[in-house]
Amino acid sequence: MNEQILMLLREGLQRMGLDAQRPGVIQIAEYLTRMLEKNRVMNLSAIRDPDAAVRLHALDALGLFACLNLAGKRVLDVGTGGGIPGAILALYEPESQVSMLDSTAKKLAFVEQTCNELDVKADFYAGRAEELAQGELREQFDVVTARAVASLPLLCELCLPFVKIGGVFAAYKANASEEIAASRHAVSMLGGRILTPYAYAIPGEMAVRCIVLIEKIDMTPPAYPRTWAKIKSKPL
Q1: Where in the chain are the domains?
Q2: Rounded to the nearest 5 degrees, what angle is found at the Cα of 74, between the Cα atoms of 166 and 164?
Q3: Domain 69-233: what homologous superfamily?
Q4: Tens digit of each residue's pLDDT (9 = 90 or more) over 29-75
Q5: pTM attached to this predicted model
Q6: 141: which strand partners?
Q7: Is-contact 92 187, C-beta < 8 A?
Q8: Is 216 exposed, middle or buried (0-12, 13-18, 19+ CB in 10 A)?
C-alpha cells in the first residue's frame, strides 16, 4: 500500500469533518494503490497521480457521507468505471449493501477482483443501465449514485428507475444549477422530487462540488428508461 495515499486520505477526511480512523480507510488507500497500478495497462481513469486520485476519486466519493447515511441501505452505483464511487462507498461503510453496474466488462472485472481480494461484499452487474433497469433491479435500491456519466436530465432517466419509492438518487456534479433547472420536467415524469443539493469542498480543490439529491416519490412509468439512442436524441 502507498503510505502517501493513506496519509493524504486521512488528512483530507479530517478536513472534511469525516471519520479518518474507520478501518475501511486503510482499505481505500489500498484500493487506490491497486487502481493506479492497473491504470498503467488499462484505462480505468484519466487520473494517474496519487495526490489527484485521493482528492478526485476517494474524497469526492466520500463527500456523500456528509449528507447521507448508507448503513443498512441497498446502494447501486451506475457507471462505476474503475469502482468510483461504488467501491469507495462499500469500503468506508461495510454495513451498506453496494452493487456496481457498468457496461465495460473488463473494468468491472478489475473492480470485482479487487473488491474480493479486499473482502468487500458487493454485487456486480455488467450491462447497460437502460436495459437492466427494465428487469429485476427495477425500483430495488435505497440509494442510487452516478458520477461523471452524463448530463443530469439523461442521468435521471437512467438512474431513477432503479430507486425504490422513498429512496434517493444522488448525482455527483460540479456546478449543477443549470442542469437542475433542465432536469425538472424529467424528474417529475420519472416519479422524483428534487431536494436541496448538498455542496461540499474537497481539500486542495478550488471548485466546490455538489451532490444533487432526488427523492423517489412515485413509481417510474414502465416506458422509462427508453433506449440510449432515444434518451440522447430526445431528453425528457
Answers
A1: 69-233
A2: 30
A3: Vaccinia Virus protein VP39 (3.40.50.150)
A4: 999 999 899 888 877 777 778 888 999 999 999 999 999 999 999 99
A5: 0.95
A6: 163
A7: no
A8: buried
C-alpha cell at 46: 484519466
Distance CA 213, CA 130 (A): 20
- In single-letter form, the type of residue at position 47 comes to I
Q: Determine the pLDDT at residue 176.
A: 83
Cβ atoms of 55 and 12 closer than 8 Å: yes
What count of residues does the chain have? 236
- DSSP calls for the chain: --HHHHHHHHHHHHHTTS-TT-HHHHHHHHHHHHHHHHTTTS-S-S---HHHHIIIIIIHHHGGGGT---TT-EEEEET-TTTTTHHHHHHH-TTSEEEEEES-HHHHHHHHHHHHHTT--EEEEES-HHHHTTTTTTT-EEEEEEESSS-HHHHHHHHGGGEEEEEEEEEEESS-HHHHHHHHHHHHHTTEEE---EEEE-TT-SSEEEEEEEEE-SPPPTT-S--HHHHHHS--
